[in-house]
Amino acid sequence: MNTPVALSSQLAVNPLDARSLLAAFGVLGVGVVMFAETGLLIGFFLPGDSLLFTAGLLCTGTGQHGVRLSLGPLLCAAALGAVAGAQCGYLLGRRAGGALLARGRSARLRDGARRAGELLERYGHAKAIVLARFVPVVRTVLNPLAGALGVPARVFTVWQAAGGLVWSIGLTLAGYGLGSSIPDVDRYLLPLVALIVALSLVPLAAELYRGRRRPEEKEARG
């Protein structure tokens, strides 16, 4: 049973701070955040990348806040939340159609929808679904957008699961690996999280670069 102190700490949690979320809700919170960020449009602001990395780090027991997580349950919660959330977003998109995104008032959300649409148009369903996992906000809106645009359910399910597992497990293990090999690594948590987020954008940046080079190469050959 939760004590009044525990309840007050949960109510005071900062949803934008990965360490605050983990201190309040632990492994369960990771699964819920993964589901909300990838499956519900209201979760677009949640710190998915930093949460996964920080959670992996805290599995090593190096944190300064007395929070320690178990790696096995953490990996299961992260993967399940990411995969189930994306599938839920897709189903919502199929039922509600484009109206689901049209009602969004956030400029950041609308921009994410635009970028998600560009990914689907430029790279096709499979590649876009995987790449979107590594781009904040885009990974939130691409799932309902794919449902609204009629992306085949089998194609979406296979590739969102593949991308979701690579993203959730990869970032978690990256945090765990660094925490295991570098003493007091949590002192450098903020710059490390920024680095991880930047590295997660490399696949998308590479694809965008290749996409721009192809028309230029065709013109040069022509």
Explained architecture:
There is one protein chain. The model is unreliable at 4-11 (pLDDT under 50). Helix 2 (18-39) runs parallel beside helix 4, helix 3 packs across helix 9 and helix 4 (71-96) runs antiparallel to helix 8. The protein has helices at residues 4-11, 18-39, 48-58, 71-96, 99-102, 107-132, 138-148, 153-181, 189-200, 202-221. The protein is built from 10 helices and no strands. The protein has 222 residues and is mainly α.
Question: What layout of secondary structure does this protein have?
Answer:
Elements: H1 4-11, H2 18-39, H3 48-58, H4 71-96, H5 99-102, H6 107-132, H7 138-148, H8 153-181, H9 189-200, H10 202-221
Features:
222 residues; mainly alpha; 10 helices
Concise overview:
The chain has about 220 residues and is mainly α.
Number of helices: 10
Proportion of residues in β-strands: under 5%
> Radius of gyration over alpha carbons?
18 Å
Shape call? globular
Helical content class: over 70%
Largest beta-sheet characterization: none
Oligomer: single chain
Poorly predicted ranges: 4-11
- Rounded mean pLDDT is 78
User: H/E element string?
Assistant: HHHHHHHHHH
Which class best fits the helix and strand makeup?
mainly alpha
Q: What is the tally of beta strands?
A: 0
Span between N and C termini? Answer: 72 Å
